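How it folds
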Amino acid sequence: MVRSDGDRRDAFTLVELLVVIAIIGILIALLLPAVQAAREAARRTQCANNLKQLGIALHNYHDTYKQFPIGTRNNDPAHPRPNYIWRPGDHRKGSFLVKLLPYFEQTAMYEQIDFKYDVNVQIRRMGFGWGSGTKQLDTLRCPSDDWNPTNRSLSNYAKSLGFQRMPDWQGGCPAYEPPNIVLFHSGLTGHGSTNDGRRISGVFSRYAWAARFADIMDGTSNVIAIGEIRPWCGDHHRGGWFNPNALWTATTGPINFPTCPDEGPGHSSGPSDCNHFRVWTTSQGFKSRHPGGAQFLFCDASVHFLSETIDYYTYQRLGDRWDGRPVGNY
């Protein structure tokens, strides 16, 4: 029986269907970068907000104590078992972020800490530290980074030692060591491991010294206080936000210098050059997942994005609190 014209049903041919699928694929390919860029912009804004909150905390802390918060040493050489509760002293009292806790809405945690004893142990007992399921403070995480927050209590933000001498433990990265670079007068103590502010380029030492506003002679709007880090890309940065030996970071290594294990070109499989995560010269430097640079909190509580292609000595002048040189454009 022959169907009438009214019984005929129209349908896509296979070729037409393939054309439609191809068009949809092209549209997705065109839209995906825009969607990803929008998501990164939102993450970057959140990251900047976290830094801003830390900046306000720094200023409120300074209003109370007339200086920025100090760190401490990681062990007590006079005690044979420094990882255990021990006598009162100036060691293992937590990072500078521990002192800032009540200034970024973590007063309840801060009030549980007895600073007569080992702060690291006490914070681990609160559920922070190593292992799956450990707690994380959202204020200390930049959402652009991709480390697993359930694995450790890490931080994406670290204090700045400024333009400090940062020798590698095996001498494998001479590119950012004298005589290949000319250090400013104050940054000669390796890794900022001193309580003498005269030998610190930036506004924090690795140990128990931190600047007052009066010590920032180049002006608070011209000096970096805190910058972004990627904790899996630095040997000591993996130690956690509360660890006094984790967050010492200098501007000496360029921004976003590749030291992340198994990540992209330039990664090294051994600590014999500048690209290994255990090479402190570059791994204990500022870096982020933001394309093209990283965000920094300056001492006036302003947040700036600095390009990874910034002139090297301009970057160092921003790290140093008292070099006396003009900064220029950045």
